[in-house]
Design goal:
Distance between the termini: 13 Å
Low-confidence stretches: none
Oligomer: single chain
Number of strands: 12
Order of helices and strands: EEEHEHEEEEHEEEE
Largest sheet: 6 strands, antiparallel, barrel
Mean pLDDT: 93
Radius of gyration: 23 Å
């Protein structure tokens, strides 16, 4: 498993080798520094802890700074990657070159928040007739029984907060890699807002 933290830049379109116009999402992979390593003998599993984006000095506390080696400034973003296939050591900086030769990737991000939504938008309910006098349009309808069991069961689809959840988009095709600017372009959409934090991994199904 190979993965890095990155930032979503936005969407655009490019021409492929066949001359077709392809919609792509541009992802900027900033340097990921190896903060620490975990081993099976000591921790029970193998993992690599990566850090990205230097933290402002005014926001650094002594307990937080104590987690980092002396020659590495404290990072704003930290993430642990288990079973990292690349041989690395503490202090190494990883970039977009990690994905050279990788044709498909999985991207994980936090989806856009939609706020409190009804069942039609949140769950795709059909609703009632739109004709005059129907009195049933976008309501959820019946949610349970009357006399017995006299309650609504768990996991019934109801109105509520929608979005702002962790979403993973699988098997996105890598269209282009710009090593000079640290950019990777993948076909299709990626969850999250612009400048939002995403995790790019080598595809597990491809």
């Amino acid at each position: 498993m190979i993965g890095l933290m990155a930032k979503k830049v936005g969407m655009t379109q490019v021409f492929d080798d066949a001359g077709n116009l392809v919609p792509v999402t541009v992802i900027r992979i900033e340097p990921n520094v190896v903060i620490a390593q975990k081993s099976v003998e000591k921790d029970g599993y193998a993992a690599v802890i990566l850090g990205m984006e230097d933290l402002k000095p005014i926001k650094i506390t002594k307990p937080y700074a104590g987690q980092f080696p002396e020659n590495i400034p404290p990072k704003k973003r930290l993430k642990e990657f288990r079973d990292f296939e690349r041989d690395v050591s503490v202090g190494d900086s990883l970039g977009v070159e990690v994905f050279e030769g990788c044709r498909y990737v999985d991207v994980t991000g936090i989806s856009k928040g939609k706020g409190f939504q009804g069942v039609v938008k949140r769950w795709g309910f059909g609703g009632g007739r739109r004709s005059h006098g129907s009195k049933f349009h976008r309501e959820p309808g019946s949610t349970g029984q009357s006399t017995y069991p006299h309650r609504t069961f768990k996991n019934v689809k109801l109105p509520g907060r929608m979005g702002r959840e962790q979403v993973t988009t699988l098997s996105l095709k890598v269209v282009k890699i710009d090593a000079g600017r640290g950019l990777i372009m993948v076909r299709g959409a990626v969850p999250g807002v612009k400048k939002g934090l995403v995790t790019v991994r080598a595809a597990v199904k491809k």
